[in-house]
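Section 3.1: Structural characterization of target chains.
Under the original work plan, the team committed to producing a structural model for every single-chain target entering the pipeline before any wet-lab resources were allocated. The record below documents one such target. The sequence was received from the expression subgroup and is listed exactly as submitted; it comprises 149 residues.
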Amino acid sequence: MEGTNKSNECSIDLKTEDMRRLSKEDFLALVEKLKESTKNFAEFEQIIREKSQVLLIFRCLTRMQRKEFANAVGIHEEILRQVEVDRREIKKENKIREITKNLKEIFSRISEINFEKALEIFKEVAIPTENEEVEKIRKELKEMNLRKI
């Protein structure tokens, strides 16, 4: 299946930590990687399967508010919020296919993606990180919470 290679190309960026903690440079680099991996924002299924939080990046690129984007891709706004904050993954295959179909439609109507505007939206949801020690503790706490579930 062709998705296998795409998964390998993206796994370094997608498997890291909470995407809301990306720097401006990392955000823009990830967007370029996603553009390449999705064949210019046309194939989304494997990437959503790998890390659902990527929906946050796609929402920024479409410049939609959360409620509007959730309705457009076919999920409840609260589920999208949980996905965006990296507390939930989309696992059901039929839901992944539905979201993929809807994303294809959304991106097919966008003639040009304005990366600076996308970055502005990303900054609204981004979590600034400056202290590596604080980040290490946050990561450990998150891992402890995940083990309890």
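The radius of gyration is 15 Å.
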